[in-house]
Amino acid sequence: MGMFCYQCQETAACKGCSIKGVCGKQPDTANLQDLLIFVLKGIGELGEKAAEKNLLTNDIGEFICASLFTTITNANFDDDRFYAQIDRAIAVRDEFKKKLTAAGVKVDGLSEATTWKPAAKSDYLAKAEKVGILATENVDVRSLRELLIYGVKGIAAYADHAFVLGYRDENIFKFMVKALASTTKNLSVDQIVGLVMEAGQTAVTTMALLDKANTTTYGHPEMTKVKIDAGNRPGILVSGHDLKDFKELLEQSKDAGIDIYTHSEMLPANYYPEFKKYKHFYGNYGNAWWKQDTEFASFNGPILMTTNCITPVKDAYKDRIYTTGNAGYPGVKHIPDRKEGGAKDFSAIIAQAKKCQPPTQIETGEIVGGFAHNQVLALADKVISAVKSGAIKRFVVMAGCDGRHKTRQYFTDVAENLPEGTIILTAGCAKYRYNKLQLGDIGGIPRVLDAGQCNDSYSLAVIALKLKEVFGLNDINELPLSFDIAWYEQKAVAVLLALLYLGVKNIRLGPTLPAFLSENVAKVLVEKFNIKPTGEVKKDIEAMMAAS
User: Can you give the CATH number for the domain in which 91 is found?
Assistant: First the structure.
């Protein structure tokens, strides 16, 4: 059975994966994800009706978020989990429909997504073939619908992290059901464009909520030197984005005689005061997600994947990698969700770690990070003085994702060749292209300011808006600020839409423009926001320094 997926930057030939995902996703897995989204659209239609009567409940929103999270690139490859989640989605949908009917809400006349049920296991994949991306024939409508869905997927991931910590916003859920429902309707291009912009607004709201959740729970990130060598005790390596999982593992392992390390997007855990209390929290091991096949092998101990990004698991570490939450991989041990009011049980991974060899050292030294908005604003006087004196000539936002694409060397080359009077603002795993370069500082301010995970791109927006206020400007685009963004998956799409909502123009986006942007949709984004592809390093730097 074939597939079609073009939601990530590395999609085949920048057109779409149709045989097997470049990410490693098998055709059946891709199709089951499409089917899950199809049923979620039905829940969205019902949710939109419920919202009109103030009957949309948090449990529906949370279910949608968790389900969408599983379909993000490199999050879950386990077909059994998707069959189960589709069944659960149908059950949630039908129970929801009963409650709405009982409350006098009319739920007839909606799409098939509100009624479809499989009669046999073969029905799942047969139906999936008919409801995937290519079911929308008009290429521009398809492009806008998928842009909206991918933005909503990113929002869902960030919202999921927030409500795991007890933070919710019903307006986020209201938008999500409206967006999902919209893809079942015959809307005009202008109407869908309006929803895409609303997705950007909701992305800002969601990232602000998650920032509040993280900083209230674990403290504000602070400037921190992070060790990148390896200790002499066995360890557990933690990747992904879920800080609550990380906290619970730290607490349960504090007397076990092992060390805890971060990997890839978990690096920013090193910046939070709450986690620094644990003496066995050693530092960071390795680099961006796509290097995990070699770095997980050399780590020697168990690995915990809390969310995406997981790549096809190698035999060298298959017996010591664990997934949890919305992550999953066939044949890999999965740590179940926590029960209400309790914690996850990490005893199995801790027990295995005790029997393993210490990590093999792959590099030495330290890196500096922790420049989220609270820390940068604490340095505001120094930053403003440096700008006014001309010591800082420009800020370049180089946030986003890393990936295997050879052309991503572009971002390293830009960082190395930017004039000495520039400051790089970053968040997300894109930082691994340049966070270990020796770029120096400007008056004690490091030239690379790492705000944290991809969701912490919100911090960069806060910093920009504060600078706009301080300098008395009317438009964020009047700041000495350029955007050179690397993207990979759907959370980055949400961040991009957030920037567009905030009115940011002249964004360079690379290493390729998204395959899901049709020619006409790409033209609209170029004309309205002046989005442009990354190009030749020297010319791009010259243009950025000239504010174009």
Answer: 1.20.1270.20
